[in-house]
Design a protein that fits this description.
The complex is a heterodimer of chains A (about 1000) and B (about 450). With about 1000 residues, chain A is mainly β. Chain A folds into two domains: about 100 residues, Immunoglobulin-like (Sandwich), CATH 2.60.40; about 800 residues, TonB-dependent receptor, beta-barrel domain (Maltoporin, Chain A), CATH 2.40.170. Helices cover about 10% and strands about 45% of the residues of chain A. Chain A contains 14 helices and 51 strands. In chain A, the strands form ten sheets. Chain A has a 22-stranded antiparallel beta barrel. In chain A, strand 39 and strand 40 form a beta hairpin. The longest helix of chain A has 14 residues. Chain B has about 450 residues and is mainly alpha-helical. Chain B has one domain: Alpha Horseshoe (Serine Threonine Protein Phosphatase 5, Tetratricopeptide repeat). In chain B, about 45% of the residues lie in helices and about 10% in strands. Chain B is built from 14 helices and nine strands. In chain B, strand 7 and strand 8 form a beta hairpin. Chain B is globular. Classes of the chains: A mainly beta (about 1000), B mainly alpha (about 450). The interface between A and B is large, with 120 and 115 residues. Chain B: This is RagB/SusD family nutrient uptake outer membrane protein. Chain B: Keywords: Cell outer membrane, Membrane, Signal. Chain B: Belongs to the SusD family. Chain B: It is found in: Cell outer membrane.
């Protein structure tokens, strides 16, 4: 409740200003929720035309003195419609009922690094999510899961269903091909790290050829560490026009997360418990075999195995065996919050223990948050944010591999007629059809990410000067994000693929240790100046920022393990690699906001940045921004009472994206032989002229609100171009290098975002809030100074992304017969829509759901190809087009001739979340528990209830290559998506 | 307007500003992970140059698994089955309409890897030429080593690209030399080997650097004569002999063999090897796959056993599997057992090849009886009876190619040998519609 907190803080400060007493009227009363009748604590009560105000206490009570005998009082509360009431000397008790607001038009959105603006005055379409939207329908496993499908203008793709998350998030299209394509995450002013760190599985899977580290390890993103239930609101600055204040860090947008804070009043204790299960969301099925089919697919030698199975009627559904676990989900949360006028606190605790749909996988998290706000004096106050997280995810072994060891790759060539289950002695039979027995792999391996993380932030506000028309404050902010990530991948020597096969190393213990420390500091001087009788206000900000990013990853691969030991030194050989990232950024920031009676709001700002990642470290890069919003409905000429908001807005801004770390260096890497230390040139040729890529975004929009916010329409169009596009130019291999980072192109994204908030139905007993959103984006590479090049995926034979001038940045090309390499698809959706609904019956029963429709957008489905080649596809013997050639044979025949069958439409309609909750009516609670219990709520919910799609994979949301760049949508035997179903119990004291 | 600023606040301001502006400058951070190439280009010392020597030797091994798969599968020496990558059995064998792609790993990886080693050798050459920390003899030693390895690496790429050619001059990444055809490339490679020979002859008694145990066969037994330029020169000449037969310069081959480590006896395995280990920073033998493996497989082409002469001990290079393996309509019952562990060395060139080069050169220069006796060293050395066929040039070429097939099995020669003699048509076609490729395409990224 940071936003609210600022307002209140201001009011509190104002109260302390000595006032001359005139004829006074004292008014007191209680403010309640018009719907539920429960008291509202923390409602601000302000005497109109003065700076005098107060807030309601925990029981919703207030008392205020009016400086004059009569006047007006305004009652406002975040999420509720404000009310202004006349007060006459006769009135001394005034009880107010506030109505809940459909959307938060009155909420504030962040437009500066230290300033905010009311949403009604904002010139940008800032997407925001509140608690109800984030965690109100069902319990997401991680933060990235919590925002999936909910944000207008975002394309969020889950990499897989593996416990612990992992998502690729793109705001308003692709903004960088090789630079930073993931948005910046800021939690309470702390810039937090969102790395995906490889666990070194490549040493076993060989997915990316040699080496131990790769981007195909299905690593999670570190944003997953944040507890979704701690979040009060999420704001998303989608493009440079809004995000320019974050300068060179903001090329991919900014996600600003604000956590919950305490409110003045009685200490509130809320406990909630979720109990749920998780199951695979969608199965592909198994092939049915006949003797003839077995002979054809597996050779004559397999026939006796088949006949034996047939005789014993022992056909095993290995998909169910492997992915059919019912995982138990347990989440316990305890929040304690409260405070006095000087000190407020919030404590949030979480214990999460979730099993996965594959046995031995799961996600555990413990999080404790302590947020403190304290007013030192009328001039000083500070806010402290602290959060400790311990998380652990067991993620199995999935995705691409070149050694036949990952679950799915081994499954893809394993028919149902063999028995891979362990015998009575616990000995697993060897899988004759694959490099590994995946049941053995599942049971015996470890692939764990364990994190200990501390987030700390401190904001100190100092009132430097305060006057009738001007006040000036100094804001000093420091943030710290430290984590230690330990990856542990243990492959005991008894595994089939550790005994024989290309990765047989007689056991492997792969242990990584990553330390990450981000610190960021900022200081701002903010001046508010009111002129012309408060008709014209200026908000000026001048500030400086500093960011230090340090990451140190060490990865040890120990092989030839001694017995069943897993310590690194209990091995025949250890190889070590280390990678450090060090970045130092400094920035200066200036912003001026001018507001003329909430009618015309203009903003201009400039950020100057320099960074050690640029070739010229001390050259300032300038990122300007400007915006204008005109609230026509606030002008005197506006006569249409029904339209209470009619805002035209336009905003322009620039932001930057750093070159990838190390782009400027041409270096050697170590490579030894014969026990001698050697150096070879890295595959990347350095570029000593590399500079930031620069995004320029122009957005314009129209916001209309009808009948007191009963219908709110927000429409936005944008055009953003990225110049100096950072590209990994594939250089001729004969140069000795294979890539080089260059500034070599221009990319454009254009799009439309529409959102309609309505109350289709409202009676005293039933209220239906609905929001429907529609968004689309079209990208184009408008200039490319390097030859067109393929990127991601596995080459044109199987379909690959292809960066080419004049084409979509996410087009997929591949071979097609005699036509050669042609465009076969595009990962970019035609459009996306979501449909968010909250239905409240008799104020006690809440039913809510979120539907998400993604139309168009192609994936590269290689899972199906692998099952075809392995002779296990469920539709192997079907002949859909009736031409006498079976489906699988058609696809196999295409291999090497056409990539078309592998590029598949990934349209889906998904019921992402659904929830039904019942609040016990207050009288009932009082009857049962007396005054001890404040509220009690039970509910059921689920996510991923259904996915309607023609896509022939586990889930159309998939990414073998993780969140990296634009290579999402490549499907190589992923960890299947799951469905989660919960029972919830919440009690408040 | 009342001013509230107090001393106290000045203090806070000062702290704030000191946090943010300790200095306005940002330090240029050097690469925290690795040394830069510039660091060795000027006045490098022996330790730095030796790192480059080892790096060059190590780089010769990058992606050789893929190189062997290319020449071994196209040359029908073995099948490469992969649960994860179908292109070994589709593209490489030309299944159906599949053709070799110019931007797929089997084309790009070996090409890039060899040029990476060439780059390393070129950096070594540039560094050795631009330092005054070494003697002239030491410099000659570095140059002799670097140019020999560079020649070998260029030859590896040329064997894949064949008539499509390679780039020879790749010193300046901004200004790469042209792709020259096969004949010109072979001439350039032979020239490089000869230049290296001259360097090695002027390199004194010892090298300032050490090489891996892959070169230890070349050391004389005399303890007073440690491994040095004269020993390395024998490797250089062995490569020169190989290049000479590729150029059909058979008298040149015989001449080169004289300076090589050729021994006309059954010391077949004497030679130069890539070495492997699982030590840190090293790699293991990418060609090794254990017996009866599943999923990822290299299996002898059935014709290797079917065509063999009974009693040939070279059949021990393969072993019958417990169960045959099948993929994409191909079946083999034989594992390749040339390597027994993932740290076994892999030959670069060994005496057995030199004997066969000797035989080939003798055949081509008309000394047929010398050729027969050389071939008989091979035959009898592997448990076969001496050659009893016709002693004609054609018959002996056939016999020589057959011995090369069995002696150099899984060493990447058969495809190249049959191509040299226009006999690719003799390779077995396993499935209707399969093709035998003659050359790999120049990688897409070369922009040709």
């Amino acid at each position: 409740m940071k936003n609210f907190y600022l307002i209140r803080l201001l009011l509190l400060l104002l109260m302390m200003v000595p006032m001359v007493l005139y004829a006074q009227t004292t008014v007191r009363g209680t403010v309640t929720d018009a719907g539920k009748g429960i008291p509202l604590p923390g409602v601000s009560v302000v005497v109109v035309g003065t700076t005098q105000g107060t807030t309601t206490d925990a029981e919703g009570r207030y008392s205020i003195q009016l400086p004059t005998a009569s006047g007006k009082l305004t009652f406002s509360y975040l999420g509720f419609v404000s009310q202004t009431v006349d007060v006459t000397p006769a009135v001394d008790v005034l009880n107010i009922e506030l109505k809940e607001r459909l959307t938060n038009l009155s909420e504030v959105v962040i437009t500066g690094l230290a300033t905010t603006v009311k949403r009604t005055n904002a010139a940008n379409a800032v997407s925001s999510l509140n608690t109800r939207e984030i965690t109100g329908i069902t319990t997401p496993q991680t933060v990235d899961g919590a925002i999936s499908g909910k944000l207008v203008g975002a394309n969020i793709v889950a990499n897989s269903g593996a416990p612990g998350g992992g998502m690729a998030m793109k705001l308003r299209g692709i903004t960088s091909i090789f630079g930073n394509a993931q948005p910046l995450f800021v939690v309470d002013g702390i810039i937090i790290d969102n790395s995906s760190i490889s666990a070194g599985l490549n040493a076993v899977t060989n997915a990316a050829g040699g080496g131990s580290s790769s981007n195909q390890d299905n690593a999670s993103n570190r944003i997953a560490d944040i507890n979704p239930a701690d979040i009060e609101s999420i704001e998303v600055l989608k493009g440079a026009s809004a995000a320019a204040i974050y300068g060179s860090l903001a090329s991919a947008g900014v996600v600003i997360i604000t956590t919950k804070r305490g409110a003045v009043g009685k200490t509130l204790v809320d406990f909630s418990q979720d109990i749920g299960i998780t199951r695979i969301a969608n199965t592909l099925g198994m092939r049915t075999y006949t003797e003839e089919r077995v002979r054809k697919s597996f050779g004559a030698a397999a026939v006796p195995l088949f006949l034996e199975a047939q005789q014993q009627n022992r056909f095993i559904d290995y998909e169910d065996e492997l992915y059919g676990n019912t995982g138990l989900l347990l989440n316990s949360r305890l929040n304690v919050s409260g405070g006095t006028e000087k000190t407020r606190f919030f404590v949030g605790g979480l214990i999460q223990d979730e099993e996965g749909i594959v046995e031995k996988t799961g996600y555990e998290k413990k999080s404790i948050r302590f947020n403190l706000d304290h007013i030192l004096s009328d001039r000083f106050d500070f806010s402290l944010t602290s959060n400790y997280i311990n998380s652990e995810s067991d993620r199995g072994l999935t995705n691409n591999d070149n050694a036949g060891v990952s679950f799915g790759v081994a499954l893809s060539s394993t028919p149902s007629f063999i028995d891979l289950r362990p015998n009575a002695d616990g000995v697993y039979p060897e899988n004759p059809f694959a490099g590994s027995n995946f049941l053995q792999t599942r049971d015996l391996i470890t692939n764990r990410e364990a994190t200990d993380r501390f987030l700390g932030g401190l904001t100190l506000n100092t009132q430097l000067q305060r006057g009738e028309t001007s006040n000036t404050r100094l804001v000093i902010r420091g943030g710290l994000d430290f984590y230690n990530l330990r990856t542990t991948a243990i492959f005991p020597s008894v595994l089939q693929f550790q005994i024989k096969g290309p990765s047989a190393t007689q056991g492997a213990s792969i242990q990584g240790n990553a330390f990450n420390l981000n610190t960021n500091y900022a200081a701002f001087i903010v001046n508010n100046l009111s002129l012309a009788d408060n008709n014209l206000t200026f908000t000026s900000t001048l500030g400086a920022t500093r960011e230090n990013f340090n990451q140190n990853q060490i990865l040890n691969v120990a092989t030839r393990l001694i017995g069943d030991q897993t310590n690194l030194d209990q091995s025949g050989a250890v190889s070590v690699s280390q990678n450090r990232l060090i970045t130092r950024n400094k920035g200066l920031f200036f912003q001026e906001e001018i507001n003329y009676r909430d009618r015309i709001i203009a903003t201009a700002g400039l950020r100057l940045d320099k960074s050690s990642d640029n070739a010229d470290v001390n050259e300032f890069q300038a990122f300007p921004k400007a915006s204008l919003a005109v609230n026509l409905a606030n002008f005197d000429f506006w006569q249409m009472e029904a339209i209470n908001l009619f805002k035209l807005r336009v905003a322009y801004g620039q932001s930057g994206g750093f070159p990838p770390f190390g782009a400027k260096y041409t270096s050697f890497v170590p490579f030894n032989t014969g026990g001698l230390p050697g150096l070879i040139p890295a595959v990347q040729r350095g570029n000593d002229e590399i500079k930031q890529e620069r995004q320029k975004e122009l957005e314009a929009g129209l916001d209309v609100s009808l009948w007191g916010d009963k219908i709110i329409f927000e429409g936005t169009v944008y055009n953003k171009t990225v110049t100096d596009l950072i590209l990994f130019q594939n250089v001729p291999g004969s140069s000795g290098f294979t890539t080089r980072v260059v500034n070599g192109g221009e990319l454009r994204n254009r799009g439309v975002e529409l959102a309609l908030n309505t109350i289709p139905f409202e009676t005293p007993s039933i209220k239906w809030n609905s929001r429907i959103s529609y968004w689309l984006n079209r990208s184009e590479i408008t200039e490319l100074n390097v030859p067109a090049f393929p990127l991601g995926a596995f080459g044109t034979t199987l379909g690959t992304f292809f960066i080419e001038e004049g084409e979509s940045a996410t087009q997929i090309k591949g071979i097609r017969g005699d036509q050669g390499v042609v465009k076969l698809g595009d990962a970019q959706p035609d459009f996306q829509m979501n449909f968010h609904n909250f239905i409240t019956v008799k104020q006690n029963l809440t039913f809510s759901f979120l539907l998400h429709w993604k139309k168009g957008g192609d994936n590269i489905n290689l899972t199906e190809l692998l099952t075809d080649l392995g002779g296990t596809s469920p539709d192997f013997d079907d002949d859909d087009d009736g031409d006498g050639v079976t489906n699988a044979q058609e696809r196999i025949n295409a291999l090497g001739n056409s990539a078309e069958p592998f590029v598949q439409d990934a349209t889906y309609l998904r019921l992402r979340e659904i929830g039904l909750y019942y609040d016990l009516p207050e009288p009932a609670i009082r009857n049962i528990f007396g005054s001890i219990v404040r509220n009690l709520k039970v509910g059921v919910s689920a996510n991923n209830v259904f996915v309607i799609t023609d896509y022939r994979g586990y889930d159309p949301e998939v990414s073998n290559f993780g969140a990296n760049g634009l290579s999402t949508g490549v499907d190589v035997t992923p960890f299947p998506a799951s469905r989660r179903m919960f029972f919830h119990f919440m009690i408040g004291f | 307007m009342k001013n509230y600023i107090t001393k106290y606040k000045f203090g806070i301001c000062a702290i704030a500003l000191s946090l943010v502006f300790p200095s306005c400058e940002i330090e240029d951070i050097p690469d925290p992970n690795n040394p830069t190439i510039e660091s060795v280009l000027e006045n490098a010392g022996i330790p730095s140059l030796n790192n480059l020597v080892t790096g060059t030797e190590a780089a010769m091994r990058i992606d050789i698994g893929t190189y062997y798969d290319d020449v071994g599968v196209v040359g029908r020496e073995y099948y490469r089955f992969s649960g994860a990558d179908p292109r070994f059995t589709s593209d490489l064998l030309g299944a159906g309409n599949a053709v070799l792609d110019n931007n797929t790993f089997y084309t790009t990886r070996p090409w890039n890897a060899r040029y990476r080693a060439v780059k390393n050798a070129n950096i070594l050459i540039a560094s050795a030429n631009n330092t005054n920390q070494i003697t002239e003899q030491q410099k000659q030693g570095y140059l002799g080593f670097a140019k020999t390895i560079k020649a070998h690496q260029l030859l590896m790429n040329l064997t894949l690209m064949n008539e499509n050619g390679i780039r020879v001059n790749v010193d300046d990444p901004e200004n790469l030399g042209p792709v020259v055809d096969r004949a010109a490339a072979l001439t350039a490679i032979a020239g490089l080997l000869d230049e290296a020979q001259a360097h090695l002859q002027g390199a004194g008694e010892t090298f300032p650097f050490s090489l891996s145990s892959g070169y230890e066969d070349l050391v004389n037994t005399d303890p007073k004569d440690p491994f040095g330029p004269d020993d390395f020169l024998e490797f250089n000449r062995a490569l020169a002999a190989r290049v000479a037969v590729y150029r059909e310069n058979f008298s040149g081959a015989l001449q080169a063999l004289q300076g090589s480590f050729l021994e006309l006896n059954t010391n077949f395995n004497k030679g130069v090897y890539y070495t492997f280990s699982d030590a840190s920073g090293d790699i293991v033998n990418p060609l090794f796959i254990g017996r009866n493996a599943k999923g990822e497989l290299r299996l002898a082409h059935p014709s290797f056993v079917a065509d063999a002469t009974p009693g040939d001990d070279r059949l021990s290079k393969v072993a019958l599997r417990d169960e045959p393996a099948t993929q994409s309509g191909l079946t083999s019952r034989y594992d390749i057992t040339v390597f027994s562990s993932n740290t076994d060395p892999v030959p670069i060139i060994r005496n057995e090849e030199l004997i066969l080069i000797y035989a080939e050169a003798k055949i081509q220069t008309g000394a047929l009886l010398d050729a027969v006796s050389a071939l008989n060293i091979i035959r009898t050395g592997h448990g076969l009876l001496p050659y009893s066929g016709l002693v004609t040039k054609d018959a002996l070429i056939t016999e020589m190619l057959r011995q090369r097939r069995y002696s150099l099995f899984f060493e990447g020669h058969r495809w190249i040998d049959l191509r040299r003699y226009n006999r690719l048509g003799q390779l077995p076609i396993d499935r209707p519609g399969d093709d035998v490729w003659v050359s790999f395409p120049i990688p897409f990224n070369e922009g040709i």
